[in-house]
Amino acid sequence: MTYRGFALCLVMVMVATMWTQNAAQSGCTSALTSLSPCLNYITGSSSSPSPSCCSQLSSVVQSSPQCLCSLLNGGGSSFGITMNQTLALSLPGPCKVQTPPHCP
């Protein structure tokens, strides 16, 4: 495993742990951790989302769109993830995923 791979795994464990502690009541833990393939894109490390990212995004939009709103409304920063808000908001475009118009 490369250093980058190890670091990504470590970040995901931290995200899952912190999300579980902070938002277990909302039922979004598994939905948001399923978006781990999107981390490279929304942090600016990759110029395009992977097919697995797009597939997971589509699943979360269908099953738990409120979880995406939670993440986009500052949830990522509470996990120590520096998310590029512009890339995160643009993710549905390159993934060709229709999302609800606005977060509450």
TrEMBL record:
InterPro entries in alphabetical order: Bifun_inhib/LTP/seed_sf, Bifunc_inhib/LTP/seed_store, LTSS, Plant_nsLTP
Residue stretches making up the Bifunctional inhibitor/plant lipid transfer protein/seed storage helical domain: 28-103
Molecular-function GO term, any one: lipid binding
Coiled-coil boundaries: none
Signal peptide: 1-24
This protein's record includes keyword NAD: no
Keywords attached to this entry: Cell membrane, Disulfide bond, Glycoprotein, GPI-anchor, Lipoprotein, Membrane, Signal
One Pfam family from the record: LTP_2
Membrane topology according to the record: Lipid-anchor; GPI-anchor
Biological process according to GO: lipid transport
Compartments (UniProt record): Cell membrane
GO cellular component, one term: side of membrane
Similarity comment text for this entry: Belongs to the plant LTP family.
Protein name, per record: Bifunctional inhibitor/plant lipid transfer protein/seed storage helical domain-containing protein
